[in-house]
TrEMBL record:
<dbReference type="InterPro" id="IPR022272">
    <property type="entry name" value="Lipocalin_CS"/>
</dbReference>
<feature type="domain" description="Lipocalin/cytosolic fatty-acid binding">
    <location>
        <begin position="30"/>
        <end position="166"/>
    </location>
</feature>
<dbReference type="Pfam" id="PF08212">
    <property type="entry name" value="Lipocalin_2"/>
</dbReference>
<dbReference type="InterPro" id="IPR047202">
    <property type="entry name" value="Lipocalin_Blc-like_dom"/>
</dbReference>
<keyword id="KW-0449">Lipoprotein</keyword>
<dbReference type="GO" id="GO:0009279">
    <property type="term" value="C:cell outer membrane"/>
</dbReference>
<comment type="similarity">
    <text>Belongs to the calycin superfamily. Lipocalin family.</text>
</comment>
<comment type="function">
    <text>Involved in the storage or transport of lipids necessary for membrane maintenance under stressful conditions. Displays a binding preference for lysophospholipids.</text>
</comment>
<keyword id="KW-0732">Signal</keyword>
<dbReference type="InterPro" id="IPR002446">
    <property type="entry name" value="Lipocalin_bac"/>
</dbReference>
<keyword id="KW-0472">Membrane</keyword>
<keyword id="KW-0564">Palmitate</keyword>
<dbReference type="GO" id="GO:0008289">
    <property type="term" value="F:lipid binding"/>
</dbReference>
<keyword id="KW-0446">Lipid-binding</keyword>
<protein>
    <recommendedName>
        <fullName>Outer membrane lipoprotein Blc</fullName>
    </recommendedName>
</protein>
<dbReference type="GO" id="GO:0006950">
    <property type="term" value="P:response to stress"/>
</dbReference>
<dbReference type="InterPro" id="IPR022271">
    <property type="entry name" value="Lipocalin_ApoD"/>
</dbReference>
Amino acid sequence: MKKLSIALVVFMMGCTSIPEDVTPVDNFRLEKYLGKWYEIARLDHSFERGLSQVTAEYSLRDDGGVRVLNRGYSAKDDSRKEAEGKAYFVKKPDQGYLKVSFFGPFYGSYIVFELDENYQYSLVSGPDKSYLWILARRPEIGEDLKNTLTAKAAAAGFDTSKLIFVDHDKSLASQPH
């Protein structure tokens, strides 16, 4: 947990900028985005390295922000990792452009730049093109959708050849969920 938190601090010290060729979605509805998302794929970073079964849960905070709870399983340590953060809209609440912090006053961009109308999958960027996540409401998505989302990320300039596709096989973990 401590290692995960320290690594997240380094990420959050980045900034809240928007990478070139990435445009936050408009008509974003937070109430539809709240809930549990499964990480389908990501670009590698130390704070998630080696984790499988990665999820993110979003809920409302009393101060109007968003509670972010990230969880994953480390087979190497045979343990669950968890990090809790907070997020706030950067400009307006109907744009998928937030800033997120897992520690103190340091924030990094959380940019939803692709989102289906039913809020079943999304593409999310950080402050630069080394941060990319494909998220979905289920732990698995079809190959066609996976290919479509990967192509959209590539068209925006992300190096999708380096995507790590996340294993959600719960039999890997010896600990209960």
